[in-house]
Amino acid sequence: MIGVVTPDELLTTTRTVRKRLDLERPVPREVVEDCVRIALQAPSGSNRQTWQWIVVTDPDQRAAVGAVYKKSCETYLESQGAAGRLFAEDPERSKVQKRVHDSVAFLADRMGDVPVLVLPCLRVASGRLPSGNQAGMWGSILPAAWSYCLAARARGLGTAWTTLHLAYENEVAEILGLPEDVFQTALIPTAYYTGDTFKPAPRQPVSEVLHWDRW
After folding, report:
1. Is 107 domain-assigned?
2. 1: in domain
3. What integer pLDDT is reported at residue 128 of this predicted model?
4. Domain range for residue 176?
């Protein structure tokens, strides 16, 4: 059921949900289909609409994808670019980063237990990614994937946008039986969330990131 939420609230409180995903409560198929139906209204390059959506609910399939994700996430968590190692010189920011780091590790151990795993994909006719500018290509699926997250939030579902599994994209493609011309964009675990709601996160002041006319 869709809750009453303003557009601004929806856009500022659609957070990455990891520790608050309810792993026990089933997500009805029709709710996921509604979210994808909303997502299909997003723009795409030349209106091609070459997106494809893989929704994984089978326990064995979820476990297999989760195992690949955990393997990739373990490498990430040990890297210098891991969330918990960033902004170490800023004590307040460092606290936030360490919480993010812990939540990433938490989800890595449980990805295969999340009721629904959604993988937005893009079908490329040539079967090969272009060597040049790819912004337009990915821009034909990323708005739709984010619309899915917003639609899920409006229905009381939590999501997390992650791409860590793409380090082993071919392994996941084999698990899911993807054709060679279908490329994965993200992995979006989806579940009802625990607790009441979410609030906007601290962000930089607009004055620090906004440039008018030139840098």
Report:
1. yes
2. no
3. 76
4. 7-209
Residue 214 lies inside a defined structural domain of this protein: no
The CATH number of the domain where 103 resides is what?
A: 3.40.109.10
Q: At 75, which amino acid appears? A: T
Give me the DSSP letters along the chain: ------HHHHHHH--B-STTB-SSS---HHHHHHHHHHHTTS--GGG---EEEEEE--HHHHHHHHHHHHHHHHHHHHSTTSGGGTTTT-HHHHHHHHHHHHHHHHHHTTGGGSSEEEEEEEE-TTSS--SS--HHHHTTTHHHHHHHHHHHHHTTEEE--B-GGGGGHHHHHHHHT--TTEEE--BEEEEEBSSS---PPP---HHHH--SS--
Structural domain tally of the chain?
1
In a domain, 174, yes or no: yes
Query: Using an 8 Å Cβ cutoff, are 160 and 107 in contact?
Result: yes
Q: Which residues pair with 183 in a beta bridge?
A: 122
Mean pLDDT by 10 residues, the chain (215 residues): 82 96 98 98 92 98 98 94 90 88 95 98 82 80 97 97 96 97 96 94 94 97
- Please state, in angstroms and rounded to a whole number, the distance separating the CA atoms of residues 16 and 187: 12
Angle between helices 59-78 and 169-176 (to 10 degrees): 180
Residue 61, class by beta-carbon neighbours within 10 Å (0-12 exposed, 13-18 middle, 19+ buried)?
A: middle
pLDDT at site 3? 65
Geometric angle at alpha carbon 13, from 10 and 17, rounded to 5°? 120
